[in-house]
Amino acid sequence: MCNICTACSTNKKLNKYTATSFDYFDTASIITGYATSQAEFDVIANEILSQLAEYHKLYTIYHRFDGIENLCTINELVDGKHRTVKVDRKIVDMLKYAKEMYTLTNGKLNVAMGGVLSLWHSYRTIGRDDPSEAALPPMDKLREAAKHTDISNLIIDEENLTVTITDPLMKLDVGAIAKGYATEQIALWLEKQNTNGFVLNIGGNVRTIGVKPNGEKWTVGVENSDGTDYLAYLNLSGESVVTSGSYQRYYIVDGEKYHHIIHPATLMPAQGYVSVSVICKNSGLGDALSTALFC
Hints:
295 residues, disordered N terminus
């Protein structure tokens, strides 16, 4: 990798390459970068995808993997309660950051809302698979789930790398932060390798690493909600832009659209905005703030 990064900084002719995957975080991952050859680019892109696969397996709440303790196993109950789980440091660091974002956003970003969000996820899935069965989650069930969203019940032991949920009815859902956090960690790794001239677009979490070989910044478009054009074009170098929107993940009940960004106070889809984009250095911060500001 060091040899590749050295080559990328020389005067050799650099060409633009792209790699795409649909395997991680339930979204499209697009890697764009400059290298002297396809083979050189593939080495870097494959390492990025390998790291993305690791973060995906650790942060998913929907799947278990042999030999891995992840967010899914942390959420599981054994004899009616959560167990203390020994986890990878990548989980500890992300959950610690999520707690910091909870404080920063006055609770608008709360990874302890898994019970509420899982209800919405179930009803949204049913409604999208069979529109004739589309319905809203009953408010009494949402309110009951909301009683179990106190993030202080998430206990993180940094020294021993363990995580415990002390409320047996509480679940974690890191969908509003995990993807951006993982994107940022991979970008920081690339920067430490002195890799320049790359862009990571992980499901709309766009993080630029350096500039193009000619010194120009990257041009990143902010998509219009109707898909017809772009609202703005941004020039970025080593920065990220993250968008939270109501126009892609939704379902329809009695002619009304209900999207996936749930306000922690109303327990309903947040109102007032179609999309919110945040430009900052840290993609994890952008991910958290775009959701919080939407609310």
